[in-house]
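Board notes (copied after class):
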Amino acid sequence: MTSQSQPNIYEKIGGALKSIRLERDLTLKEVEKMTDINIATISQIERGVKNYSLGWIIHYANTLGFNPEEVFIRAFQEDFQNKQLDRLFERFEEYLPEIKKNNDNT
């Protein structure tokens, strides 16, 4: 279970789908006509309250004319960056006491 302050996976992906739709200046009604998916379902997915499949994301992306990969890049960009920073800190962790000691002496 995720906390109220941190979005879950569905919320992150839904937010990415919504931002892509808005960048394309598409309304929910226009997307409904293009995809044959009703407005309520699209809205629930964009808010992260309805589950969906990878196949649905691919269909949605293909219909709207963008690479499905873009959804995941947007949704998890911050997570990827944080993971990379964690790896860097782990890699240089053995040097941290020495760096702190040198900074304390200056």
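Comment from the instructor: The chain has a mean pLDDT of 83. The chain is about 70% helix and 0% strand.
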